Amino acid sequence: MAHQQLWLLRHGEAVPHESKPDFDRELTARGERQSIAAGEALARLALEFAACYTSPLLRAAGTAALACKQLSVTPEEREALGKEFDEQVARELLAEHEDGARILIVGHNPTFAQVVHDLTGATVDFKKGGVAAVRITGPGRGELIALLRPRELESIALGVQPTAEG
């Protein structure tokens, strides 16, 4: 039996909270670089996605647009990926796809870390511009199969072997 995979990409670095309304906070130059590197790394890993869904918030939609240029998939905004994202929403999005499908979701913390925990029991430190992947192994069960920080994604994108950190 093939299992579905849920790949979560947290938006890249954005302008400060106090600079403008939350919905309108765009990516910084560093956030744009993080987003491009994430897309290039996922492409270099030969990952194919059945779909990409993104939060409508500007920083997430910008991250999705930049990352998906490398992945031959067009991001689709979903309102529920803003502040309401949870395990149920993740399962509903997966249910739209066949067994064996891999989907990419671009959004926010702390909801991303909570969904990873709810699906796997794992506690993750989800960096801006980072990626986590969960393989759904059954009803109510999942397994964390990847957790990549922006630095690691950049190394993969550049074809450099990442080094272990102490």
Q: What's the level 1 CATH class?
A: Alpha Beta
Strand order of the largest sheet: 3-2-4-1-5-6
Beta-strand residue percentage: 15-25%
What percent of the residues sit in helical stretches (DSSP H or I)?
Answer: 25-40%
- Given helix and strand content, the structural type is alpha/beta
Number of helices: 5
Question: What is the number of strand segments?
Answer: 6
Whole-number average pLDDT?
A: 93
N-to-C SSE string, H for helix and E for strand: EHEHEHEHEEH
- Domain unit count: 1
CATH architecture: 3-Layer(aba) Sandwich
Radius of gyration from the alpha-carbon trace, in angstroms: 15 Å
In whole angstroms, the N-to-C terminal distance is: 37 Å
The shape is globular
Q: Could you tell me the CATH topology label.
A: Rossmann fold
Poorly predicted segments: none
Q: How would you sum up the major sheet?
A: 6 strands, mixed
What does this structure look like?
The protein has 166 residues and is of the alpha/beta class. The protein has a single domain, classed as Phosphoglycerate mutase-like (Rossmann fold, 3-Layer(aba) Sandwich). Helices cover 33% and strands 21% of the residues. It has 5 helices and 6 strands. The chain has helices spanning 29-44, 58-68, 87-95, 111-120, 150-158, and strands spanning 5-10, 51-54, 75-77, 102-107, 131-138, 141-148. It has a 6-stranded mixed β-sheet with strand order 3-2-4-1-5-6, with helices on both faces. The longest helix is centred in the first third of the chain and has 16 residues, at 29-44.
